[in-house]
Amino acid sequence: MSAPPLTGRPLVLDGGLSNELVAQGHAVAGELWTARLLVEDQAAVRAAHAAYVRAGAEVLISASYQASFEGFARHGVDRAAAERLFGDSVRLARAAAGGRRVWVAGSVGPYGAVAADGGEYRGRYGLSVGELVRFHRPRIAALAAAGPDVLALETVPDVVEAEALLRAAEGCGVPVWLSYTVEGGRTRAGQSLEEAFALAAGDDRVLAVGVNCCAPEEVLPAVEVAAATTGKPVVAYPNSGEEWDAAGRRWRGRGRSPAEYAVAWRDAGARLIGGCCRVGPAGIAELAARLAPFR
Description:
Blueprint: E1 11-12, H1 17-23, H2 36-40, H3 42-55, E2 59-61, H4 69-74, H5 79-96, E3 103-108, H6 111-115, H7 129-145, E4 150-156, H8 159-168, E5 176-180, E6 182-183, E7 186-187, H9 193-198, E8 206-212, H10 219-230, E9 234-237, E10 243-245, E11 250-252, H11 262-268, E12 270-273, H12 281-291
Parallel strand pairs: 1-12, 2-3, 3-4, 4-5, 5-8, 8-9, 9-12
Antiparallel strand pairs: 6-7, 10-11
InterPro entries: BHMT-like, HCY_dom, HCY_dom_sf, Hcy_S-methyltransferase
GO molecular function, one term: methyltransferase activity
Protein name: Homocysteine S-methyltransferase
């Protein structure tokens, strides 16, 4: 496979991998999150990916979002085995396609997600670009070695980490997309979206820029800024819009399908469209149907 062409019809991304794993009865709590099942139950990961393929997803995002060598080590996995697990995350998504034409995105989540302390919704970790490069480069190298079609540098909370991720991906031989998590029309760390997207404007390795893991209402303005700032295709895969009540340990609010908004996003320049947290296969099937006339 090769990286997806993004100049024409929109491609349908998958939804929240953790959603489908939980729906199938698996626990994903802890610092490894979905990557825990790379260690404990790879068949479950493949089955979750396959559910999204059946729903119409054309791009699958690997189970490596919260994976790190440090996290695997705390789970009793040595470095050589951890490298294989990073690669397995790509291979399992590829196998789940079942012969269908599906692209695989190797997920590279932010430092805050790997720290498992909610830092991906704040950014500004107090680390330099160089320190973040050193953290991310081994993860990116392990994923790239497995041959994904693209790397998803995703849920990035600030410009500092975006710069580090792009540097860490230099020379890996795999194109990337860069996707911020946003709130109130700015990055989670408070920078303007013009500044955030401009970082990738002249970088030919970056296939698309956009947003994920945010409220659906945040997407359209961000798509417009991303397209205008970079001239690149845009990636958009928000959450359902529900909010997590940490004290009550439950989700609150009304869930919305990305299908409700997808045509407007497409018209504004989005060419990779899917869902993130709380968007399951049913939501992706609805999205695929809504975008069918444009594909």
